[in-house]
Amino acid sequence: MMAVYIILIIIAVIMLLMLLPADLVIHISYNDSKIRNAINIRYAFLKFKIYPPESKDKKTKPEEKNEKSNIPVIKPIKAVYKELKDDIKRLGTYIIKRALRIKELNISAKFGVGDPMYTGILSGTANAVVYNAVAFLDRHMTLDKWNVSLDADFDNACLDAGVYIKIRTRILYAVRLGIMAVPVLRKLKKINGRIKQDG
Question: Is a pLDDT exceeding 50 seen at residue 14?
Answer without folding.
Answer: yes
